[in-house]
């Protein structure tokens, strides 16, 4: 077990937590991380690119000039690909780029992302994130107290009362909040630091055990 300090919203150490080695202390698997990030990025692509082929562009219903006797190459339509305004050959059409990777690879990638954060000392545990009223100023004070850098990811438990915290954090640049069910490889790796509540850590450990 890897022992880590638990701090409160004022940045004070209030206890410790034993992180499970099989989740937070494995050797990061680079191939699994790559595949997971690639899958997530592919799923974000809109795939709405589209061009018109020869049969879709307007005009060109008749032969532009006779077949023989002009000295020019034969042409069947002014909307063929070689003409200005003609159709595009093998152009992009709307498609879905999303795909899925093996479940075991996804789990390995999540464990690798969490372990790399702990290894790089970019992981912290909070006892809770509790804000009485949705005020950006209050969340900014928490960020300053715990010395959170830019691009910080906060993860809370599924049943924790975090509505006010979400509302308080949404206007702060480079700050992201999500619950333990929503954690993903890309957001973990993209953050300069990850803070999870004790409840969130327990839920992640149960899900990945």
Number of strands: 6
Q: Bin the strand percentage.
A: 15-25%
The tally of structural domains comes to 2
Q: Which runs of at least 5 residues are low in confidence (pLDDT < 50)?
A: none
Structural class: alpha/beta
Spatial order of the strands forming the largest sheet = 2-1-3-6-4-5
Named CATH architecture of the largest domain: 3-Layer(aba) Sandwich
CATH class of the largest domain: Alpha Beta
How much is the radius of gyration in Å? 27 Å
Count of runs of 4 or more consecutive helical residues:
7
Written description of the protein model:
This protein is of the alpha/beta class and 209 residues long. It folds into two domains: 2-46 and 101-208, 3-Layer(aba) Sandwich (Ribosomal Protein L4, Chain: A); 51-91, no CATH class. Helices cover 33% and strands 15% of the residues. It has a six-stranded mixed beta sheet, with helices on both faces. Helix 2 packs across helix 3. The longest helix is centred in the middle third of the chain and has 17 residues, at 103-119. The radius of gyration is 27 Å and the shape is elongated.
């Amino acid at each position: 077990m890897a022992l880590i300090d638990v701090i409160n919203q004022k940045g004070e150490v209030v206890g410790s937590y034993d992180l499970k080695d099989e989740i937070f202390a494995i050797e990061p698997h680079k191939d699994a991380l790559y595949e997971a990030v690639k899958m997530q990025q592919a799923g974000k692509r809109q795939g709405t690119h589209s061009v018109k082929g020869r049969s879709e562009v307007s005009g060109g219903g008749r032969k532009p000039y006779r077949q023989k006797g002009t000295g020019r190459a034969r042409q069947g339509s002014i909307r063929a690909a070689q003409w200005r305004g003609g159709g595009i050959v093998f152009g992009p059409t709307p498609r879905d780029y999303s795909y899925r990777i093996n479940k075991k690879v996804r789990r390995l990638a999540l464990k690798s992302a969490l372990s790399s954060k702990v290894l790089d000392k970019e992981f912290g545990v909070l006892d809770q994130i509790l804000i009485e009223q949705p005020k950006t100023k209050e969340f900014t004070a928490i960020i300053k107290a715990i010395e959170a850098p830019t691009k910080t990811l906060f993860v809370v438990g599924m049943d924790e009362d975090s509505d006010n915290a979400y509302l308080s954090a949404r206007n702060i640049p480079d700050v992201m909040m999500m619950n333990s069910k929503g954690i993903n490889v890309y957001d973990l790796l993209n953050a300069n630091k990850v803070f999870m509540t004790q409840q969130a850590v327990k839920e992640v450990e149960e899900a990945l055990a």
